[in-house]
Every structure is written in C-alpha cells, then in structure tokens.
Amino acid sequence: MSDFTRDAESCRAEKVALRGQLLALRRSKTPDTLADAATRLQQALESHVRHQSPTVIATYVPIGAEPGGPDLLEALRRAAPTASVLLPVLMPDGDLDWAPYEGRSSLRPGPRGLLEPAGPRLGTAAVSEAELVVVPALAVDRRGIRMGRGGGSYDRALARVPVTTFTVALLHDGELLAEVPAEPHDRRVHAAITPGEGLSERLDWTK
Description:
Layout: H1 3-27, H2 31-52, E1 56-58, H3 72-79, E2 84-90, E3 96-100, E4 107-109, E5 115-117, E6 132-136, E7 139-141, E8 146-147, H4 153-159, E9 166-170, E10 176-177, E11 191-194, E12 198-200
Parallel strand pairs: 1-2, 1-6, 6-9, 7-10, 9-11
Antiparallel strand pairs: 2-3, 4-5, 7-8, 11-12
Helix pairs in contact: 2-3
C-alpha cells in the first residue's frame, strides 16, 4: 500500500469518526437549545444579507437539528424581500439541481428526508448565478475547509461557484474547529456563522 493510499484512507477514517461525534452532539441538543441557536444564526445572517443586498441567494432547507431552523427561508425573505432564493434538489447521482423557493407550502418531501422546492428545475449551473451561497456543514475549520455528511453534493455545487462569490456555512457552537481532515476535493467557504461567535468572516484560505 502506497503512502498516498494510506494517507487517504486515514483521512477518510478521521472524517467518519469526526462526523459521528458531531452528529451525536447535534442529536443531544434540546428543542430550546436548537430554537435559540436558530434565532441567533438567523439574526447574524439577516444582518449580513441586509449589508450585502444580494439579488440571488442559494441556500438550503434545514431539517432536524441542522443549523438555521425551520424559519431560515423566511428570515432570508425578510432581509432581502426582492431577492430570488434558490434551493437544492438532490439528483439520483448525488449532484444538486436548483429550483426557486416559492413559499413554504411549495416544499415537497425529497430523498433522505429532505424538503425540496416543487418549482421548475434550473440546472446544476444555476448556483453559479447566486451572489450569496449559504451551505449546510457539520464542521468548518479556520482555513475555510468545510466538512459535510460525506455525499459530496455540496463539493460539486461549490466547484461551480465563482471564487469571488461569498459562501457561508451555518454551524452550531463547537463546530468551527481549528482543523478538520481534508481531501483534495473538499471545497472551502469564505465564512461561517455560529450562534456564539456570529459571522466569522474571511477564513484564511492561504493555509
């Protein structure tokens, strides 16, 4: 076995272990804790959105204990009432198509327990038109490296986003780490928002 293969396998094993720890911590959070975290995250995100004034926002629908809470989309609408909001649609190959958000009543159950928009599909490249991209994550480190659930969907989506587009991950406290295990395909984000720290802007991509 080559050193490269051994290092890659070690990295993947570290990711699996870290994901398990973080998911267990999320499952342990009480409804009150989740609601308070969602309020703080939405307030910080709304403040940034009002400052940036994007016309197209790509985001996601939080489910379960995912950061952002069930009212995340309405918070974005309050902050940017004229902006177009795009939501992901999980494709059979794990890639992400995108469709416009047309209100909570327009969401439909999707694969893996997700909620997806029922509107017209705009194609995988639609995310490249967003001026702000809000992504889910299990952890982000101070270098901007994002760790998701392991499917690679958002790594592919972020690869289509211009490097100048502001990308931000929503996290719970304790999920903005000094370092997370990273592989070559892992994409970085510009910033993270946590309930306790707010917006940690412009993470260091030079490291």
